[in-house]
Amino acid sequence: MKFLLVFDFDHTIIDENSDTWIVKCAPERKLPNELRNSYQPGHWTEYMGRVFVYLGDNGVKEDEMKRTMTTIPFTAGMIDLLGFIGKNKELFDCIIVSDSNTVFIDWILKAADLHEVFDEVFTNPAAFSSTGYLTVQHFHAHHCAKCPKNLCKRKVLQEFLDKQLEQGVSYTQIVYIGDGGNDLCPVMFLTKNDIAMPRQGYTLEKKISQLAQSLSPVQCSVLVWSSATDILSYLKLLIKE
Is 194 a catalytic residue? Predict the structure, then answer.
């Protein structure tokens, strides 16, 4: 009996958006209008690439970025929840699927000593170039019309489950914890045995309830959370069963 926990990162594990938080490193803690206005829907990764060039051009170095990123607050109750999961790894496999990037997530998890809770992190690959600029790439290519160009979380989840199955691992239940519009695609892939946990008041919760109103509800159960304490309570019940 093993459960798979799938976490989004921004506004789920941390209580902010890591990509917009980095702007605190910019001169006057803001971006020029022309850069801000250059974002095109579905092309966030390209936009962040331009943000990182701007920061590099303004002499923002890796250590300053790291110091800034590790001040991001975790969502209420999240440290306790992840501690609990870490103590019960024989029952829980735990992955992150995020539209952030490997550098940010790595910094934040390691600073809080939480990286070992997660079996795998699926996010956009990032690295510092020889000139000290942060660069970011698309996670993968996909054909899903619903998702941003760089990442379809359903595809990630499907491929992970297939790979696990090949190694003889199947899950009693998948628990998907997220908040954003790009979490809807993987939630629609879940079956009636699984559970989606959208964050209260965020886009994912609104989209799931719109589907229910248009009589095409998601197949899985839905349990809304406002702090990670709600998620922890559910996991404790799950283990008792």
Answer: no
**Total number of residues shown for the chain:** 241
pTM over cut 0.90: yes
Q: Binding site membership: which residues? A: 8, 10, 19, 99, 179
3-class secondary structure, 223: coil
Q: What is the pLDDT of residues 178-209, one digit of tens each?
A: 999 999 999 999 999 999 999 999 999 999 99
Q: Report the binding-site residues for substrate.
A: 19, 99
- List, in sequence order, the alpha helices (H) in 29-183: 33-36, 44-57, 62-69, 78-87, 102-111, 153-166
State the Cα–Cα distance between residues 174 and 142, nearest whole angstrom. Answer: 23
For 38-69, give one letter per residue: b (16+ CB within 10 A) or e: eeeeeebbebbbebbebbbeeebeeeebbebb
User: Which element (helix H / strand E) includes 149?
Assistant: none
Q: Where are the domains of the chain?
A: 2-15+74-124+146-239
**8 annotated active-site:** yes
Find, among 228, 229, 230, 178, the residue nearest to 203 by Cα.
178
Contact at 8 Å (CB) between 131 and 56? yes
Q: What is the CATH number of domain 2-15+74-124+146-239?
A: 3.40.50.1000
Please name the residues in contact with 82: beta carbons below 8 A apart, sequence gap of 6 or more: 13, 114, 117
Residue 213 has pLDDT above 90, yes or no: no
